[in-house]
């Protein structure tokens, strides 16, 4: 029992250090299961120390291209099979305590003719598995926003005004995307170029967001619309 309690305290301390929050591990989780979890996390951290030369968690199969343009904060975690391409004007900036799911992709530049803008994820952002961040026009997600699996963000648009020229040969327009702090986006959300979602918003599963919404909006549907609002905390009351 003492060993079990010690292991739980150590894991809770590690989570507090990485995520900036206090949690109590469910007593239904067996000690043997905690040991396996701790080993997986330790292996990912060791991989980060060797590959990235810093305290980050890199699961198997993570690919980091153009590393000189990528910045990753302390104790961030990148899931199995995720690809991050740093080639961009502003680079890829991942804050501290960020969690990126498995088999995601982050890319800003689709053509060598012009570099894309890049990505900025603030501290403690969490994004689920199978995400795609197309950051040609720039993507920013502010602190403590959490996102379910299958997030798709496109920060550009193909021009198609000239019918005499194929769309492939026409230009691409930057349309930056910003998602505010402390938002919750459900699974299978798509966000199109030029959208700004305010702080403390909720976006329902499957929503296709084609326009901007103010802070505290509850958003659902395709195209997304407001169905309600929620209180936005005052600056002094935020935890």
The main β sheet shows up as: 9 strands, mixed
Mean pLDDT: 92
Q: Which regions are unreliable across 5 or more consecutive residues at pLDDT < 50? A: none
Strand portion:
25-35%
Structural class: alpha/beta
Total of helices? 2
Strand order of the largest sheet: 1-4-7-10-13-18-21-23-24
Helix content: 10-25%
Radius of gyration: 20 Å
What is the approximate shape? Answer: globular
Q: Between the first and last Cα atoms, what is the distance in angstroms?
A: 34 Å
Order of helices and strands: HHEEEEEEEEEEEEEEEEEEEEEEEE
Number of beta-strand segments: 24
How is this structure best described in words?
- With 239 residues, this protein is of the alpha/beta class.
- The chain is built from two helices and 24 strands.
- It has helices at 2-19, 31-51, and strands spanning 57-58, 63-65, 70-72, 77-78, 83-85, 92-94, 99-100, 105-107, 119-121, 126-127, 132-134, 139-141, 146-147, 152-154, 156-158, 172-174, 177-179, 184-185, 190-191, 196-197, 202-203, 208-209, 217-220, 225-229.
- The strands form four sheets. Strands 1-4-7-10-13-18-21-23-24 form a nine-stranded mixed β-sheet.
- Strand 23 and strand 24 (225-229) form a beta hairpin.
């Amino acid at each position: 029992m003492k060993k079990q309690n010690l292991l739980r305290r150590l894991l809770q301390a590690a989570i507090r250090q990485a995520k900036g929050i206090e949690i109590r591990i469910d007593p239904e989780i067996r000690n043997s299961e905690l040991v396996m979890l701790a080993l997986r996390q330790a292996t990912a951290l060791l991989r980060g120390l060797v590959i990235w030369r810093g305290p980050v968690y890199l699961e198997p199969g993570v690919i980091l291209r153009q590393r000189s343009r990528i910045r990753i904060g302390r104790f961030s975690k990148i899931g199995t099979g995720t690809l991050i391409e740093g080639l961009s004007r502003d680079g890829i900036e991942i804050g501290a305590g960020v969690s990126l799911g498995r088999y995601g992709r982050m890319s800003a530049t689709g053509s060598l003719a012009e570099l894309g803008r890049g990505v900025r994820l603030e501290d403690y952002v969490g994004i689920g598995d199978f995400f795609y961040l197309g950051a040609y026009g720039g993507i920013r997600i502010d602190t403590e926003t959490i996102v379910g699996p299958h997030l798709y963000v496109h920060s550009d648009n193909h021009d198609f005004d000239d019918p005499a020229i194929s769309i492939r040969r026409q230009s691409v327009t930057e349309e930056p995307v910003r998602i505010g702090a402390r938002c919750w986006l459900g699974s299978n959300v798509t966000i199109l170029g030029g959208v700004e979602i305010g702080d403390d918003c909720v976006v329902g599963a499957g929503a296709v967001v084609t326009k901007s919404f103010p802070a505290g909006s509850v958003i659902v549907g395709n195209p997304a619309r407001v169905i309600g609002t929620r209180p936005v905390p005052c600056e002094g009351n935020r935890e």
